[in-house]
Input
Amino acid sequence: MGIATPMRRSRLLATVTAAALATSMLAACSGSGGGTSGSKGNGIKGQRFKILVASSPTPNKVVEQHVVDILKKEGVDASLDFTEAQSSVQLAEVKQGKVDGFAEATAGAISAISQGIPLVDFGLLQPRQDYVFLARPGINSLADLKGKKIGVIDTVGVNWAQALIVLKAAGLSVGDVHMVTAGGQSSRLSAMVSGRIDATMLSHSGQIELEPKGYKVLYDYTKQSPELYDDNLFAMKSWLDTHHALALEVNKAILESFKWFDDPANADAVLKRALEIAPGSDEAATKQLLDTLRSTDAYPPGTILDTSVISKEEDLFLNAKAIDKSVPPAQWVDTSFGEKAKTEVG
Output
């Protein structure tokens, strides 16, 4: 081949260097990325992902907010919207494409799916229920609930199932109490304080606020019903079929958020973000809430959707008569995005 002259060696070196640089840039652009590692080249930049949460803005939604924050850093037009509207209104927004992801409990989603709405469960936002059943002063036991007014957001969502679980534990039926549609958490809390309802289910933040005033916890769903998921993440099948890359990144962001929340080193950052979600929240009470959730392992790192848990939930809701019929999870639960995300995030 001959001996290269200094000039030829210089040109050869430049060519090799340019090729190596091009290869490096191509590799950087083709990686799928994850939660905090970026998502260049996977096509999600500029896409919209609006999550609708069936709740008023509360500090315990900080993990969901962090998911949105991660996606925004990756170039996604992501947002977290709250609503206290009834399930029919929420579902209408999902069906009309006004929102992309729907944070809902299993019972409410199964009711919608059994009616033919093609929702798919593709993510797990809250692996444990952050709920207690609180009653006004003077109501000291489950048996005391007979004849009392119980507040729920509607008759098909998780509140309804939670109320029936409590009534079953009390040996009572729906006919033994007065079920009152009272809106989201903040509305139900106000309704109980004003005396419009006698008992309802609230986040542990409600417990922290009301227990010192004589309100009593009659049932702790986190401890007594650990088999219940809280918010799952649903989307219309048509959306999921055309947004595989985004659905994967969402699941990776969820796993990153669980780790972020669980790490004590991030406690101050978690508290700051939680207070931004619900301005005016008491800082000390919010810190107590977050510490409670952390100590009860509310967000176990690495937790993803599990169809066996969904099946147990269905059985529970059927027995509680919160749903009319079961729908096999294989028809509406897609664990593939969470499984792949767990492999990539580690």
In short: The chain is about 45% helix and 15% strand. Strands lie at 48-53, 77-82, 101-104, 119-124, 132-135, 149-152, 178-181, 199-202, 216-220, 232-236. The chain has two domains: 48-128+228-345, 132-224. The longest strand covers residues 48-53.
